[in-house]
Amino acid sequence: MVAGEHALDVDGVVAVAAEERMASKQKTMTIPSHGRPDFADVFKPAGVPAAATAVHVPTPPSEWPASRPESCTMYVPAPDPEMSYFARRHAYAYISPDTAPGRANPEAFFRAVFRTLAPDLSQDLELQTPSYFGDVVVCFRTPEDREAAMRRQPFEVAGVTVKLVREGETPNVTFTPMECLAHVALHRYPVEERTEEEIRGNCCHFGGVLEVDRACFTAPDLSTVFVVLNMEHPGEIPRELRIRYSDGSRCVVPIEILRVWDRSESLDANGEHVPLFQPLPAAA
Question: pTM (2 decimals)?
Fold first, then answer.
């Protein structure tokens, strides 16, 4: 009897916890009624011709940026296998302290330190001067070579420390959970921008494009494009997408959120995404 009562109590606690999680999820996964950005700008590079329906509209002072943003969000598709392999070979070497003499020639210093403190590891390294982060970009021969070096660090000699940081783990990169999906309508979307690559690029600041309704590719100019986006929170989706061209013109695409839901609801038994849009019937 006591065991039964204990089991009933545990079930009750589990049920309450499950209800709380579901209530929290339902509260989060609703179409936001306020708080969405008014617009998101996408700037096309010089040489990309403006869409036929683009117009020249002066930007009012109220929409001028007051300062340069310290960071920006960008959703990028998963890399292809070749690029993933390439990234897993890379690391950034940080030399500290800042006053270390070796920083005057960081590539030579790193090679000397690595040869001295890790002589049993592969010395087949390609060293490059970094553009933004670290003191040296290190390209190992294989991902396994990189991981062997990661396990051996930090490398310390004469009060100087050399630390390796994997590609994707530098201070400028932040990974966030992407548990929200949204069915979104991009109204009055220009036909010149109607390829999967362009749609993905135009939406990359507020969501990763999981799906594009294939019917939009044969629809008339300015027809609505329907997509499924994956993001952290639907509040990131702006009310307008502004596609700006180098000649000063722009296309304004109103964005309507039709539905939002938890990503887990679109996964099959194998954890694979189940498409919302049906494939187009084969031509007769």
Answer: 0.67
